[in-house]
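Researcher: Please generate the 3D structure of the following complex. Treat every line as part of one assembly.
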Amino acid sequence: MSLLTTPSLHTYRRYYQRIEPILQQSQTAGYLVLILSFATLAFFGYFAIKPTLATIITLRRQIQDSRFVNEQLEKKIGDLITAQESYQQIQSDFPLIYASIPQAPQFSTLITALESLTAEYSASISALQTQLLPLHPLTPATQGTVQPAKLVEFSVTVTGDYPHIVQFLERLIRISRLITIRSIEMQSQQSNAIIQVNLVLSAYYLP
Amino acid sequence: MKHITNRDMFILSLFSLITIVAWIVFDVYHAATTSQITPVQQELMTPVNPVFDTSVIQELKNQ
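Model: Done. Output below.
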């Protein structure tokens, strides 16, 4: 131990002897104190104060955000309970809703309804044209996603006398399936009271 | 080469301290303003309208 320390002490003593007169200068001593104070503050500020403050602030923010999330979720739970009650109240109306906007195009059902309607008012369907449409939904609706209602556009030509055609049209907009009349074009036959009506209609379905 | 004086060292340490303090302040500010709400929580918090538009159903019934 003494072998190791003795030369070091001897060496350092020489340094102390050289530094001592420098430190005795008041200006140098003042600067040294300030520099060391700043260095200490910077060191502990970076390695101790910064992480501590950041942790405190992050945890406070986490608590604040968690409270906000909790409030929002509680509100949502309340809304869901209310929605469930409302849903049960309107459950009996589902057949009516699905008849208006079915989950599949159900074009054949729509045409059957139109045929029976024309037969009811002594008219006849002379032409029918539709766009390309799937008989069944191509892809099943993903759970939890709301898709917009899809459109089935078709044109139909109905022939009949004027009063019956008017009644047919009045009845057409009140059938259970939701239908929009895009355009009506009427043509009268030359020698009799029979008129031909070209209708462009839109029906909807919600896949 | 210019000799480094006590004053230079003092200025250097002062600016170092100022930089560290500014760093701490910005770090704390960043921690205070950054939301801890995850995207999953954001999605879960999406509000639900509990009111069904019964007037539409009524219109369908009247039709």
